[in-house]
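dude i think i finally got it to work??
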Amino acid sequence: MYFWEMNFLAHLYLSGKDDEVMAGNFLGDFCTSKQIERFTPKMQTGVELHREIDNYTDASPEFKKVLELLRPTQGKYSPVVADILFDHFLASESKYFSGAGLRIFSRNCEAKLERHFDYFPAKALHFYHYAKETNVWEAYADMEGLERVFYGMHRRASFDNNMNNAVLDLQRHYSELKALFESFFPGLEEHCLEFRKLRKIN
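look at this
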């Protein structure tokens, strides 16, 4: 099951300042083990960070509660929808992108990723150009953008799904979902900060 618009915004945000770490984090789901073996050491650390983020998220009680809320309508696609909804709360909260804002943050991330295109497999390049052309991470911030994202995922899914109505789930449970994100995300930030400190990366 492969989707383009999963929670890349959180992965970029939690990568820190090092562009090699960010590239590895971004490529974590795109590359085979053999491809990762030829990454730079810092890029390999970025892949490791990507997996830390995924494992922390999947094990968190808040994320499990989100899945419980979504499962009646989203079924087996609940984890996919939950990832996007958490990116929505990240994108829509200005405190995470204070100063420059989400648009400048996105452009800065794109510039960092472009330095490492030699390591990008075709599907990663395809997604990167799609994301840049459609401003997909900025789309997470509002309901209209989310509707476009979920409709695209609905069309590309291999099986019957209700992702085209995921925004209705968000609206129905907005307060509870937002509270769960706000409980969850500071712990994930701290976990990633400690990960980077232990490996002496910014």
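The chain has a mean pLDDT of 93.
im so relieved honestly
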